[in-house]
Each structure stands twice: as structure tokens, then as C-alpha cells.
Design goal:
about 90 residues
């Protein structure tokens, strides 16, 4: 084998890209959970009160909005500079 077979295989590249996206998504969910838990959870109990529940909802929505804003800004910056590699978003 010449060493390029593994990197040139489009199916393998697609699989690696999908697995990388899954990993980034899992990291984002973990980060969001950690941030919102610290912000909203005063004292764990058998049931969430309405105030805590609304705090979680708002926290998750703000986290998603902020993440989307940052990704859009990075895309704009990337396009305006002539295109960096996609690894900048990793």
C-alpha cells in the first residue's frame, strides 16, 4: 500500500467526518449541561420547581443562540479572508 489508500477513500472520509461531528455535538451538550446546571440548580430534589425549570429553558436557549452566533461569525470571517481550512471550527 502506498500510504494514501486510507486517506483517499471517500467512504472512510465521510465516516470520519460524521464521527467527528458526533463528538463535537456530544462535547457541546456536555458543556451546555455543565453551564446550565451550575447556573440554575440550587438544591437537587425529586422534582424541579417552575423557577428552576424556566432557568434551564432560558439557559439552554441562550447557549444555543450564542453558539450559533459564534459559528456564523466564524463562517463570515472565514469567507472574508478567502477561506481557512475547516479545521478552524474544530
Amino acid at each position: 500500500m502506498d500510504g494514501q489508500g486510507a486517506t483517499a477513500d471517500p467512504q472512510l472520509q465521510h465516516f470520519i467526518e460524521i464521527e467527528s461531528q458526533k463528538q463535537r455535538f456530544q462535547q457541546l451538550v456536555h458543556q451546555m449541561t455543565e453551564v446550565c446546571w451550575e447556573k440554575c440548580m440550587d438544591k437537587p430534589g425529586p422534582k424541579l420547581d417552575s423557577r428552576t425549570e424556566m432557568c434551564f429553558v432560558n439557559c439552554v436557549e441562550r447557549f444555543i443562540d450564542t453558539s450559533q452566533f459564534i459559528l456564523n461569525r466564524l463562517e463570515q470571517t472565514q469567507k472574508s479572508r478567502g477561506g481557512f481550512s475547516e479545521t478552524m471550527l474544530d
